[in-house]
């Protein structure tokens, strides 16, 4: 049996504004694509909307970024940010900034390490 055309294209039957209760902006402006989301273990999942429950189930095994959660749930990032902010407000999620990019090392230090390694050989 062939699925209807709408389902084949991956379109949702529910509009994004329905998932966010009509809001287009998250309650927090601190979320970006690489913000890591960590689920807390002490909050019950009962009473959560299916999309919020999906976010929690994805984040329970470990930390995921906002972009990863949006991709797994096939939701726009803007919608995911609103859902994540709601879960943060209710204490279901905590966030952590991603590991900062490494700063280039001083060439002198690298040369001294290289010289020391060569001296050992």
Describe the 3D structure.
The structure is a single chain. This protein has 121 residues and is mainly α. 44% of the residues lie in helices and 8% in strands. The protein is built from six helices and three strands, in the order H-H-E-H-E-H-H-E-H. It has helices at 5-8, 16-19, 50-59, 66-73, 77-89, 107-120, and strands spanning 36-39, 64-65, 93-96. The protein has a three-stranded antiparallel beta sheet with strand order 2-1-3. Helix 4 crosses helix 5. The N and C termini lie far apart (68 Å).
Oligomeric state:
single chain
Distance from first to last alpha carbon: 68 Å
Q: For the CA atoms, what is the radius of gyration?
A: 21 Å
- Contiguous uncertain segments of 5+ residues: 5-9
Mean pLDDT equals: 82
Order of helices and strands: HHEHEHHEH
Shape: elongated
How many beta-strand runs? 3
């Amino acid at each position: 049996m062939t699925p209807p055309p709408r389902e084949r294209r991956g379109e949702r039957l529910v509009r994004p504004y329905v998932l966010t209760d009509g809001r287009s902006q998250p309650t927090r402006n601190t979320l970006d694509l690489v913000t890591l989301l960590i689920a807390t273990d002490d909050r019950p999942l009962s009473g959560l909307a299916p999309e919020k429950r999906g976010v929690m189930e994805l984040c329970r095994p470990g930390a995921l970024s906002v972009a990863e959660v949006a991709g797994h749930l096939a939701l726009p990032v803007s919608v995911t940010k609103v859902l994540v902010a709601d879960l943060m407000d209710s204490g279901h999620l905590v966030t952590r900034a991603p590991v900062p990019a490494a700063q280039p090392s001083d060439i002198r230090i690298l040369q001294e390490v290289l010289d020391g390694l060569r001296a050992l050989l």
